[in-house]
């Protein structure tokens, strides 16, 4: 019998339930995937809390990797035994197996492990579209600011940014996280709990500011992120760990230097098949070649999903976190 983490109401980590589920056979355009590793992402907490509204009861999680065990009608390009990874809807990745639409799947290269795939598919694609798509004016030699630089996406984005010839300033909370961030490409570190981020950015850029800010924190960092930009810079609102971004004051964008704000979603950057292939191909190539390293610093079992969410929200994690399937 398959097992899965589900929630029947929104709220804190305690609403999660680990239970037996019936999976069934794949229907039209679907396959059944046996999971070997499952990704744990901060976005999962948004669904659990109701910040991203979904019907309940529902499954939890949007990212996993595994092997196809059954194929439904009208499936092209996938067969039983294929190694796959995915990120995106429908919810339900926190499970030992499930039925998935083939449109959500990526074929996993043989030289990337399932654990690595579960730790990087969502995070890596996010880093890819941040850096390659959200600021078309950015170029080698520019300076960028990455908040939460020691997190899973931050570590990948910092490494990718260096491949693009960018100078990277990262914000972190502790010395240990600073060392981790520097080991993965950050040129400069700002300790946001004890330093003024805007003042330090200006010091590090000779008063000019940065070309792009990648802000995964949201409410608490928005104002500082905006003031850290150079003229006509871009603030990419990537996440809302501290709460939603405030309403945008268009005049303030002009006053700040004709800057831009965008709140992108991964789904809109992989909806087009050509763009999806471009981003996933670049990610898989970099990881397979060792140019980008994936740090899995926390491993949990699905039965420990409550504790995993507590750790994530308490800021106790670094790098990527996954659930392992025995």
TrEMBL record:
Domain Enoyl reductase (ER), residue spans: 11-323
Pfam families registered for this protein in UniProt: ADH_N, ADH_zinc_N
SUPFAM superfamilies: GroES-like (SSF50129), NAD(P)-binding Rossmann-fold domains (SSF51735)
Keyword NADP set for record: yes
InterPro entries with a match to the protein in the record: ADH-like_C, ADH-like_N, ER, GroES-like_sf, NAD(P)-bd_dom_sf, QOR-like, Quin_OxRdtase/zeta-crystal_CS
Keywords: NADP, Oxidoreductase
Protein name, UniProt field: Quinone oxidoreductase
Provenance organism: Sphingomonas alba
């Amino acid at each position: 019998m398959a097992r899965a983490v589900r929630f029947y109401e929104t709220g804190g980590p305690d609403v999660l339930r680990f239970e037996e589920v019936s999976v069934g056979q794949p229907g039209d355009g679907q396959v059944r995937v046996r999971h070997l590793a499952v990704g744990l992402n901060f976005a999962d907490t948004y669904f659990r809390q109701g910040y991203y509204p979904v019907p309940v009861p529902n499954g939890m999680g949007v990212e996993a990797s595994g092997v196809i065990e059954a194929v439904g009608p009208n499936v092209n390009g996938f067969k039983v035994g294929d190694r796959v990874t995915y990120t995106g809807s429908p919810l339900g990745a926190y499970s030992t197996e499930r039925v998935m639409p083939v449109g959500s799947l990526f074929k996993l290269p043989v030289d990337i492990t399932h654990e690595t795939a579960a730790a990087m598919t969502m995070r890596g694609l996010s880093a890819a579209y941040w850096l390659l798509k959200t600021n078309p004016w950015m170029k080698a030699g520019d300076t960028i600011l990455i908040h939460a630089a020691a997190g899973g996406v931050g570590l990948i984005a910092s490494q990718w940014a260096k491949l693009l010839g960018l100078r990277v300033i990262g914000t972190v909370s502790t010395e240990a996280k600073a060392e981790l961030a520097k080991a993965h490409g950050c040129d400069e570190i700002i300790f946001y709990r004890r330093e003024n981020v805007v003042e330090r950015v200006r010091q590090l850029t000779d008063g000019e500011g940065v070309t792009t800010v990648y802000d995964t924190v949201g409410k608490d960092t928005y104002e500082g992120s905006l003031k850290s930009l150079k003229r006509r810079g871009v603030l990419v609102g990537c996440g809302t760990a501290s709460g939603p971004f405030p309403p945008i004051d268009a005049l303030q964008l002009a006053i700040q230097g004709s800057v831009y704000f965008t709140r992108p979603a991964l789904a809109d950057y992989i909806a087009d098949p050509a763009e999806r292939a471009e981003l996933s191909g670049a990610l898989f190539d970099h990881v397979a070649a060792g140019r980008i390293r994936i740090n899995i610093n926390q491993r949990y079992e699905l039965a420990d999903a409550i504790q995993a969410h507590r750790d994530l929200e308490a800021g106790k994690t670094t790098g990527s976190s996954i659930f392992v399937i025995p």
